[in-house]
Amino acid sequence: MPDVYEPIMGAFSLARRLWKMIVEKKGLPTGDDVASLLENLGFERVCTGSGLAVFRNRFVIALLIPRENMIVVDFLSSSGELSDALELIAYYDKEIECYVVEILPSNELEYEENLGIEPVIIDGKTFELRSYPVLGDFKQGKDKVVLKIDREVYELWKESGKLDVCPVCGGHLRWKQGKALCTECGIEVVVDEEH
Ligand SMILES: [Zn+2]
């Protein structure tokens, strides 16, 4: 199970799973599917209201807000701090005929520049990927945070020619023996061969 200590950790793990699920099911997952994914990430459902479901672990709160033909999950710190809150949205874009999974800052004033997280764009007919998202599970190490990506994600990332760009902050990545360290945000990216 990944570590979800911060909103971005939950958003990355859920986005990767939604990407896989859209390709497998050839369509948008249901609210119940997303609820199960959140539970598999270690979140506990604490309440279900009219249309809204609230999940939490020790560090992060996730709000699942079902909308017509759209999945919306807000992630915020359980401390109530909103500056690092993120919104994950998944929907079918009729104009480009693709499924899209995006991670956006909830507070746009805090992030004047784009977060730099590449959206997942999946062709609605062939279910081939149209973008190069670098998503995976986080692990909290002793002195650093590690983003574990699987082989499929790594191969796509390589294809994009952007192996030197940090998938979290857009900073510069320095590769050394199969691991990459971001010189700006300090996260380490590793290719997880287990999956
Ligand atoms: Zn970085």
Description:
By secondary structure, the chain is of the alpha+beta class. The protein has one domain. It contains three helices and twelve strands; from the N terminus they run ααβββββββββαβββ. It is globular and about 50 Å long. The model has no long low-confidence stretch (mean pLDDT 91). Bound molecules: zinc ion. Zinc ion binds next to loops.
Topology (SSEs and partners):
Blueprint: H1 7-25, H2 31-40, E1 44-48, E2 53-56, E3 60-67, E4 70-77, E5 86-93, E6 98-105, E7 120-123, E8 137-140, E9 145-150, H3 151-160, E10 173-176, E11 179-182, E12 188-192
Parallel strand pairs: 9-12
Antiparallel strand pairs: 1-2, 2-3, 3-4, 4-5, 5-6, 6-7, 8-9, 10-11, 11-12
Zinc ion (ZN) is lined by residues 166, 168-169, 171, 182, 184-185, 187.
Oligomer: single chain
What structural category do the secondary elements indicate?
Answer: alpha+beta
Which geometry do the CA atoms define? globular
- Following the backbone from N to C, one meets helices and strands in this order, namely HHEEEEEEEEEHEEE
Short key terms for the protein model shown above:
single chain, 195 residues, alpha+beta, 7-stranded antiparallel β-sheet, 5-stranded mixed β-sheet, 3 helices, 20% helix, 35% strand, binds zinc ion
